[in-house]
Every structure is written in structure tokens, then in C-alpha cells.
Design goal:
Length: 210
Amino acid sequence: MLIETFPVGPFQCNCTILADDATREAIIIDPGDEPEQILDIVRVNNLTVRYLIHTHAHMDHILGTRRVKEATGAAILLHRADEWLYRNLRMQASMFGVEVNDPPAIDAYLEDGQAVTFGAGGEARVIHTPGHSPGSVCFRLRDEQEILFSGDTLFAQGIGRTDLWGGSFETLMRSIRDRLLILDDETLLHPGHGPSSTVWQEKRRNPWLQ
């Protein structure tokens, strides 16, 4: 399986492309910015993108969605609880003095426990982890090693901020404790920003979890 994670945009959101080696069918997690860089990887690897899936709807995770959607025809998936944030992209961008177009329509809503499938057996399973935003989710991928794409819920030695629209510190901590720390210690953690980690490392070294 192709797994390529790279930072995009001024906020350095980690975008990930997952693709099945045999079919070249792919999904993209958080096409947050620099859509031409994302599309270059799609073209170089001869990929057919099936879904654009989003960990949440803050602007740095959705700014590239329109262009990638237009170029690939992929379906846009987001948790329903973040739809209001998604539809208010212009409001979010105005806080930083940025002008943007309205985002394209959401094609389907992500649900807790849902399996987003691609290729001949690729599967990213949805874990609803509200707190950073009401509709924040993580994606659990089983490959040679289990991988968690944790968005802005859990970082390497950090947690998501809760002072933005719909954030709740208590809800975030409950999501991390009850939904993420129960995963296998060896689970590789790919957060929405910054370096990778493991569940084991965060249990023992993350100051917010001690």
C-alpha cells in the first residue's frame, strides 16, 4: 500500500494519500492546502481518488478540497457535526485575512465505526473523537502495522486546542482516554500536524496525559 504523508500550507497540515498497490485506487485524508502538490502525487502514481476524507472542518484541513475535488471527482466525506464549520469556511478564513470561495457540497457524512474502503481491501475505519471540534474524527488503518490518523485530536506530546468553535477540553480528554488510548500500544500515530508517534509513547510521555 502507498502511504504518503506530507505537510501543506502555512499551517503545515499533514495531508495523507493512501492507495492500493494493485488497483491504484486511493483516498486522501485532509487535503488542507497546496492542491497542486497533492494532485502531482496523484498523477505521478497514476491514482484514481475515490474519497476525500476529513478529520474535521477547520480551514487548514479543507482549503485544498475544492480544487482536488474538481480535478479528481472524488466524493467529499465529513462528520455531520462539523458541517456548520465547513459551510462557514469564509468566516474562518476572514479571521486570518484570507479570501476564499465557499467549499463544494459534502457528498456523504462520516459515521462512527464506518469503514471507508478503497482498492482491493484498503479500509480506514472512523473513530468519532469530539473535543477539538464537535465532528472531529480519527481514521484507523490496518496495514502491516496499525496506523491511526488522529487529526487535531492527539499530537506527539500534545493535544488539540479547544478554544476554537465548538471546542471542549473535557470532551477532548474523554475522547482521547476512552477512544484512542485503548488502542494497541504499537499503533503508529500520524497527527494532523507535526511528527509521528505511537500510542505507547503518548501514554508515557505526553504531559497532557499524565
